[in-house]
Amino acid sequence: MKQALKFIAVAAAVALTAGQASAAIISNVSFINGSAAMYLGTLNPVGSMGSPDRSFFDNGTLTGSFVNNFVLDFGPGPGSMTTNANFLPSTDITGFQVNFFSAAGALCPMAIGSVCTTIGAPTFLFAGSPGNNSEIGFQGLTPGRYLIAVSGSVVAGRTPLYSGQVLTRAVPEPGSLALVGAALLGLAFTARKRKQG
Q1: Ramachandran angles phi, psi of 85, nearest 5°
Q2: pLDDT at 175
Q3: DSSP-based three-state secondary structure for 154
């Protein structure tokens, strides 16, 4: 029975860590105020050498109410993606939030850091948690083009900054799931054999 439990532990560890190596950094993009959006690049949850991709973004000078848009491509998948943004100190911006949209109509040069000519009519998908650390947890996504909108209102006389990142995560491959299934079957067989004996 102990050997079976050891086998299950090893199999589960292999399955859960498959494709979960350190994320490869794709881009670090600063928003240009007044532009439609900045392009973050293509994030692949599998990435090179099985490592998921991530991208960083930050803003220029903020004044008044603002919405900064960042466009990215996601795929080929399968996988999921999370995003977060934060600023300090928390008294510099009110209503700080990150929202996530599907943006198939966004037209962007494929160069990282390029200015998108239009964002089309994005479709709202997820709202981030409000506050000085706004985050959207991992969400399963189909391959496609997406938009991250960072918004808020600057307190008069302040010059706040924010930064954020997008992180992808691979979905366990069928082979990894099969390995876990085999481990569970092995445990059931061992337990049944022991009971019969």
Answers
A1: -145, 150
A2: 41
A3: strand
